[in-house]
Design goal:
Low-confidence stretches: 1-16
Radius of gyration: 34 Å
Mean pLDDT: 84
Largest sheet: 4 strands, antiparallel
Helix content: 25-40%
Shape: elongated
């Protein structure tokens, strides 16, 4: 093979071996040529882009106004249609408030702020020089953003940024986080329609359930008798809804204080997941597992609905049950702990 180390020029960007054996470094290709945008060369295009950014910021402000309309003017009755309208206004208003600012800033940066690339050498950190450099960077940002030269963008941005956080302020204001209020919330969830002698009925028909109707492996969605006669059946149902199942009593692991909470292997547990309150609606009879479809929290029915997988922090509350003189399943009492998502009182 011939020696090609002499006489042939090396292409740019390659490593060449010199006669003394040292290696030449790569040649710096430099930055690519800057391609001007339409807004860089056409003042009318720049003005049009400025108006577009201002419109996006104005959309953000309109979104905030929509939020307040839904928050203060709509949804103060029990009408389902009005509640839906309120939810739509709150969601759409918040979305436009955030989206308008985000898209507006991106459009501003892509069309009006300088987009040329620069390369800076790294300098040693020096306190005074670092401060001066930081000040120069801030001045450069202010100058390149054009915020001083474009009052339309500046004013609409300020308006959008001032209005956008207000929905969050009003929502937080309505959260009564005092200890007294927290205790009232827990008390409302601690007490449901279940009480001594209240019959277990099928959801939604309200038909009472006899113990003989419940076979091993079956599952019933249960509500308390008389639910439809209450002033607020939806709220009452949200707290009191129960899953009823029957297992072989030998498969159950029962705590000493719960020995009489079931009837011949028939057990009842709150249907409300202790994670975020979703309905636990899936029962796998071969494994005796209850599954919450929202975040896959899994409860073992044989271990008093202990959490065996997922984000739920507590077992499902058990409803103590028995039968009355006619053989119908009835509650012995209310739940012995608050239903729904875990609370600090539970420890």
């Amino acid at each position: 093979m011939g020696d090609h180390s002499h006489g042939s020029p090396q292409e740019a960007g390659t490593v060449a071996k010199a006669q003394d054996g040292s290696l030449d470094t790569f040649q710096d290709p430099g930055l690519p040529p800057h391609r001007a945008r339409l807004t860089d060369t056409d003042p009318r295009a720049a003005k049009r882009a400025e108006r577009q950014v201002a419109i996006l910021f104005a959309i953000s402000m309109i979104g905030t106004v929509l939020f307040f309309v839904g928050y203060f003017a709509v949804g103060h009755t029990e009408s389902i249609a009005e509640i839906r309208l309120q939810n739509m206004l709150l969601g759409v208003g918040t979305a436009f408030a955030m989206l308008g600012i985000g898209v507006g800033i991106v459009h501003w940066a892509r069309t009006l702020m300088p987009d040329h690339e620069i390369a800076e050498s790294r300098h040693e950190v020096r306190t005074e020089e670092d401060r001066q450099d930081a000040e120069a960077i801030i001045n450069t940002i202010v100058d390149e953003s054009g915020i001083g030269r474009r009052p339309l963008i500046r004013n609409t941005l300020i308006g959008a940024l001032v209005l956008a956080p207000l929905p969050g302020v009003f929502i937080l204001r309505d959260l009564d986080l005092t200890k007294e209020s927290a205790g009232q919330i827990v008390d409302r969830l601690r007490h449901t329609m279940w009480d001594k002698g209240v019959r277990l009925t099928r959801d939604p028909s309200g038909t009472p359930i006899k113990a003989s109707d419940v076979q091993i492996g079956s599952a019933f969605h249960v509500i308390p008798e008389g639910l439809s006669d209450t002033e607020d059946p939806l709220n009452e149902k949200a707290k009191a809804v129960v899953l009823l199942m029957r297992l072989d009593p030998t498969d159950l692991t029962i705590s000493p204080e719960r020995e009489d909470w079931h009837y011949n292997g028939i057990v009842a547990y709150s249907k409300i997941c202790t994670h975020v309150g979703c309905p636990v609606a899936l029962y796998e009879q071969h494994t005796h597992h209850l599954l919450c479809p929202c975040h896959q929290s899994t409860f073992d029915l044989t271990q008093e609905c202990k959490v065996i997988f997922g984000p739920a922090a507590h077992a499902l509350p058990q409803l103590p049950i028995t039968v009355d003189d006619e053989g119908f399943l009835v509650a012995q009492s209310d739940f012995h702990e608050p239903v729904g998502p875990g609370y600090w009182e539970r420890g």
